[in-house]
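Try this one yourself first.
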């Protein structure tokens, strides 16, 4: 019998980047300080896909699914201000603005630039602001005003084929939405099987600031908006 190698695997090391150090510190604080709970839904997005296609027919600026999801989140938060909050120093802070942070992958880490006042902006305005911020993030040109002031975060890994995942809260925000890929799946419809389009979303919540019923009502409305965006975004 060969002797057990007690030395362990070979490895190399390098210093963590400044971004990675900040991420490590904030995510550890988030998991240790904020009691997370999670809610998930599987959403019928056939009308969402059709809505986006119609918007982009002949248009110079292409609206993304993220743009529509950001607007839908803003509309749902407007109707559920008890979700647009933070738990800070034993107080619930209710935000008057609805500022959506986007998780953007960059070399060496993750940044969360913020589109301000999404409830008051059109899809084209959200698209323009988001595109500019994402470009700034990837070229390392973000300024503090570009990432500060977020009240809710969206993390979308659908472009990588990820169907479902759970995100860690972006402190001090009380909610973060994890968005998966749009899938074609068999669905039952009036006793028959057909192919439909579905998208999974998982909402992470800070239980210090919101309860399950509160988060459930918000997520239910968000699902309703995304299942018929044209009816809610006129």
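Now uncover the answer:
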């Amino acid at each position: 019998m060969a002797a057990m190698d007690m030395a362990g695997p070979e490895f190399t090391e390098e210093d963590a980047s400044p971004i990675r150090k900040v991420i490590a510190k904030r995510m550890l604080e988030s998991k240790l300080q904020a009691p997370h709970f999670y809610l998930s839904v599987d959403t019928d997005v056939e009308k969402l896909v059709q809505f986006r296609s119609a918007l982009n027919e002949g248009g110079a600026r292409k609206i993304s699914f993220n743009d529509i999801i950001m607007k839908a989140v803003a509309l749902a938060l407007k109707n559920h201000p008890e979700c647009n909050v933070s738990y800070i120093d034993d107080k619930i802070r209710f935000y008057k603005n609805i500022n959506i942070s986007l998780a953007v992958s960059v070399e060496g880490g993750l940044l969360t630039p913020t589109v301000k006042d999404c409830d008051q902006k059109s899809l084209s305005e959200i698209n323009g602001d988001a595109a500019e911020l994402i470009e700034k993030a990837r070229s390392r040109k973000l300024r503090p005003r570009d990432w500060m002031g977020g009240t809710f975060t969206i993390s979308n890994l659908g472009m990588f084929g990820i169907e479902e995942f759970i995100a860690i809260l972006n402190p001090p925000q009380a909610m973060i939405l994890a968005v998966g890929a749009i899938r074609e799946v068999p669905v039952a419809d009036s006793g028959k099987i057909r192919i439909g389009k579905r998208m999974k979303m998982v909402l992470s919540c800070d239980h210090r600031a919101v309860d399950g019923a509160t988060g459930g009502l918000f997520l239910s409305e968000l699902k309703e908006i995304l299942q018929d965006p044209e009816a809610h975004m006129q």
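Discussion: The mean pLDDT is 94. Residues 56 and 62 are 5 Å apart (CA to CA).
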